[in-house]
Every structure is written in structure tokens, then in C-alpha cells.
Write a structure and sequence with these properties.
globular; alpha+beta; 4 strands; homotetramer; Beta-Lactamase; PduO/GlcC-like (chains A, B, C, D); 19% strand
């Protein structure tokens, strides 16, 4: 559904290379249009707790077709989606998850990255997206 | 812990190639010595239900350091480990999961494959193991 | 509730010593009369998958106030408690869990052991029980 | 993986003694480098709800290799890791969990304590850490 394994592995490879360039240790997950895990890589000695978070970020980004950080803005106390993280077996609503579009701007999957600051996580995820979207 | 990402990706690549050669569509998971997912690939159009099974096979093989099919023999009705599958958040005890050893015969991780018959699943998993163990 | 920490630690110590004598690597769990974990020890290099099983064995033995293997006899296909393992977040119904009684024959807790054959598991659990019941 | 049972039991013993000195009733959990429970003790009449919290604190400290209270600072509303607690089957991000290092400053496990104020919990956990790190 949507993204192919070949595309997903290309995203993983690009994100992995970006993480090496930045000197950070990441968990990197790619899900397809059905929010099913398609490819995954855990860098040596990356945080144990980031494994689950990277997968949840990818799923969250596809569940709502927006970067996870955007959902987080809406999910603050008093916000319209407060505590949405309780749904779907647990969401992650801080940055590091980004939808992946095809050339027709249709969502074909998403990538989730976890292992450093949320800024680093997002930057590595974006590198994965760019490898597919050709930006 | 144990297997490196480089080794895990080599196992995935070899298992993937074996699946292509056999004309089957597989989910392929590799866990490290701590039973943590290290690398994963889901071939296009592989069964959706096999995603979770492949990961559970890899974990099961590492949890008890034996091929999943061996556990299944002990877990039959009347057998000593009947219904062991209810532990650890769900085990899979039919073939397709195999521990991965280093040159010193120490378990460094495991591979789990699901998507076809259990014989096919096991054969593809073994191809992944062989890529690392150099057999 | 029921067993004290002092008693639970005595049971763990005796079971641990028995396991050392037998040359096996065990996970050993003791729960109180409320089926709450009271003491636990995981021997170095014991099977990862046995951690959860040892705790589930102890809980199962206290849930029904009988050795886990007795429940297993009733839980076979066609038996009166077939698939009871689906309850309570997962039961384990093969040997290795034993209730612990006080001098008035009242159940004060239970011990669960996992890491070898079910016969070994049961023998190590019995050593833990004996340390408290003074047999 | 990492911490030995002997070390874990030494940490439990020291933390238990500290709790007795302070007149508080604690649940004390030690996990290894793989975040697997290695030793546990529940003091008589300690809060029932603290059992799970103590284990989750130990796991959380190892998942991210930092004291749980540090994660909590980042997980406040508006913070970069807001609601991270929904990952990994439930995290605890207030004080009482501390990583345990070896002499080479490598994380070999973690301790989690729950049963009193978070300040007391942290103090008892620190006593457990000190017993191993020899401070």
C-alpha cells in the first residue's frame, strides 16, 4: 500500500547517512499508506526507549497525514486535541515523524526517527523524506 | 547488544534475495541479543498479518535460544510447554524464527520470517542466518 | 498481604541455591497473597523469555491456589478449563509455580520458576517453598 | 546483560536499608542493560500501586540513560518531549529512577524506587546506585 520496500529502504539509507553525518544514533522507521511497518533500522547503541517511539512517530504522522510536531501543538493542555496520545495504542506527538508524499502529493507512507533532540530527530526524518520526494 | 546493524541488514538482504528467488513475499525481522528489533523489511504485497508474526518469531527464537519450531514441538497439547505462547506478550511457536550465533557460538540475535508456508518461512530465515554465520 | 519480604527473600535464596546446585539458570519470582510481586531474582544468562513466565507461574499458582501443573491438566483440549490461559493477562499452566502455605495451611503467596525443563523448574520452586514451610 | 544478579541484589539491599533508616516503605526494582527486571523487593505494606511504578522507573532510566526526573522536565506541557510517557508500554518520568554505571562510565542497568515522596524515592534509589558504584 503506497510506498514500496525499495523506496522505504532508500529513505532509511538516507536518514541513516544523515544521522552518521550528524554524529547521532537513531532508530528509523518507515510505514506504508496503511501505517504498517515497512522498513526499520536501529543504529548500534541508540537509546533502547527510542525504538518504540520511532515506530509510533511514523504511525502518528500517517494516521493524521501531518508532521507529529503539528499534532503536538494541538494536543497541549487546553488545546483541541488534548491527550490524543491515548488513542491508537499510544501516539507520539512531538517532532520526528513526517508523512511521505508521491509526485501527485498523495500520502504514501511516513517516516519516524528517534534518538536525539527532537530537532535532530526531525532533521534526520526530513533527510529520509527528501530521498524519496527528490527534493 | 550483540548483532550490529550492519550484520542485521546483511541478514535482511540475503533473506530478501532468497524470497525473491523462491517467488514468495515475506516480512523479515532481525532482533539483537536483547530481543530488540534491529532491522526489518516488508516485501511489497506480503500478508499484513505476517508483519507481527515475523517480529514475534524473531523474539521467540531469542527468548529461548532455539528455532521457533522446536518450541512448538514442546508446546503441543499434552506437551510440557503447552500454551507457552501466552507469555511475553505473545509468542509464535511454529517454524520461521532462528537464533543467530557468532563465531564463538554465542547467540547475538535472531531472525524471524513470515509470509508463506512455515517451510518457506524457515528456508528464508536460514538464508538470513547463513549470510552472517558464513555457512 | 500474607508472605513477608523476609520470607520471600528466604524462598528466593533457597531456590537460587538449588538452581546453582543443579547447574541451571533460573528466573525466580515470589508473589504475596494478593498475587503482587514481592521478590524476584534473575540469574545471569538465564533465558530472556523466562522472566515473564516465572512471574506468570507465581501469579497463576496463587490465582487458583494450586500448582500450575495441576491447572495444566484441566486446561488441555476437551478439558474443563480449556484455554483458561487467556484470562488475567495471560496464565502459564505448566509446572514451575507452587502456592506457599503458612503453618495453618493458609495460602500466603506463591513461587514461580522458569529457565530449564518443567521438572527442573518445579524442583527449584519446591526448594523455595520448603525454605518457608520448614519441610 | 550488564549488571549481574549479585550487583543487583547488593543495590536492592542497600536501598532497602536506606528505606528502613528513613522509615519509608518502598518497592525497589533493578533492571539490566537490556531493561529486563533482574532483582526486585517489595517492603511489607508498601503501596500496591508503587510496584508497577518502581519497575517502570527503572526501565525508563535505562531506556534513555538518564534519571527519570530529567526526562520529566522535558516532558512537561509545551516541552519537547510532552507525553513521551505513552511510549514503551508506559513510562514514568518523575524522580526515583537512576541509571547504574560501571567503572568505565558505561550504563549496565538502572534502579527504580517508588513508595513515598519523589524526593524520598530518589534518595533511596541513589543509595542503591552508590552500593554498586562505590561512591
Amino acid at each position: 500500500m503506497g510506498i514500496t520496500l525499495e523506496q522505504a529502504q532508500a529513505a532509511i539509507k538516507a536518514a541513516h547517512q544523515k544521522a552518521l553525518d550528524m554524529g547521532v544514533k537513531m532508530n528509523i522507521a518507515v510505514v506504508d499508506a496503511g501505517a504498517n511497518l515497512t522498513a526499520f533500522a536501529r543504529m548500534d547503541d541508540a537509546w533502547l526507549g527510542s525504538l518504540d517511539i520511532s515506530i509510533k512517530k511514523a504511525k502518528t504522522a500517517r494516521y493524521f497525514d501531518m508532521p507529529t510536531g503539528e499534532i503536538g501543538k494541538l494536543a497541549q493542555p487546553g488545546g483541541p486535541l488534548y491527550n490524543i496520545e491515548h488513542s491508537n495504542g499510544g501516539l507520539i506527538s512531538f517532532p520526528g515523524g513526517i508523512p511521505i508524499m508521491d509526485s501527485g502529493n498523495r500520502v504514501i507512507g511516513a517516516i519516524g526517527v528517534s534518538g536525539s533532540t527532537v530537532e535532530d530527530d526531525h532533521a534526520v526524518a526530513q533527510a529520509g523524506v527528501n530521498a524519496i520526494q527528490g527534493q
